[in-house]
Amino acid sequence: MNKILYKYYWLNFLVVAIPSFFNPLIYIFLLKNNSMSQIGVYLSLFWFISFLTEIPCGAITDLIGEKKSIILSGIFKIVGLLLLISYDFKLLIISAFFSAISESFQSGTLSSWMINSINHYKSNSVNLEKVFSIASIIGLTTSLIVGFISVNYLYVYKPILPFIFSMILCVILIFSAINMGTIKTLKNETIIKVLINSVIEIKTVFKRIFNLKTGLVLMLLILLPKLLDVGPSNQWQAVFHRENDEKIISIVWIVIAISGILGSFISDKILKNTDYFKSFSLLLFTDVLILMGIFLSSNIWLNIILFSLHIVFFTIASIKGNVLLHSEIVESDKLRNTTVSIFYSLESVCISIFLSLNGIFSDKIGILNTWRLTNIFILLVLVFLLFYIKKKRRFLNGLKKK
User: Fold this and answer.
1) What DSSP designation does 186 have?
2) Which one, 99, 230, 298, 301, has least CB within 10 Å?
3) Is-contact 289 382, C-beta < 8 A?
4) What is the pTM assigned to this prediction?
């Protein structure tokens, strides 16, 4: 059983390390030959294709097994990176397609393989919570160290090097996956049948989204932190970047990693005696004010501190939002996976739209002004949704009393 876990940790390390080489600096790299609108289109397309391919790729994985899916993910990632560094916008768009499919094949596949393998060997001695905790620590540490090395040394020496190192790790991932073994969860199913069922499932997801009504409003509320962070999470490199001083980017990268870890660690200690609905709203409102304050001062270190506070509050709000999703929206264990998949489908579509708009407005009025405009919009939506939900709850409580 330890052999399976060691393979899982190793593969998890590779999956995290591959994007960590280029994530801290991809926006700066793309800005060399593309406008912010074009980058917004690229990121938006990536999210939208991820949404379209998530369910079909999951179904195909059940058919062909996790090993082949990881291999396909590695191959698609290499093709996507090769197209990304081509300095051609048309090829960049095609890159979004290959990169999105790569993510869809890889998303959740390793965890499924590990759990399926443990269940196959009927082992009850494995503490999954501990396994995921170790994997999370490996991921965060890997992301921090690899990103730091990439920004400070590889990118400084030659901007294309981080992408080359990512492709090398993709090759290592492919060869590592060959020896991972696989447990198929579907038998005697044809690829055509799986794809047809996937299309039907996607249609069902859309129907459920628009039939949820009150649930949809709560989903939109939980989505707000992610939409608020669309600009900061993708454009921080361009905002903090100083010509001939890549150390600032590496410092901010470390700050982001540590702030995320801190937010995760204290999330259950912040407003613990407050209703999740109220605490989530308060955290989101505070995060909006923090982002509004960034760059009102010309002191870059003060702005980095404010940005780190944003990461902390964003992380805590996201965790409490996840609790809200499972406690307020999910109606039964039987429908839990379906409801959660609806939420993530809605999230992908909304982020895709926001990324595109963010790129357009960043070109027109500047990055920071776009952030502030987004803050005002999110604040107005937050107030409206809170008012609507509060009114709806009063109405439902009145019906219960009658």
Assistant:
1) -
2) 298
3) no
4) 0.70
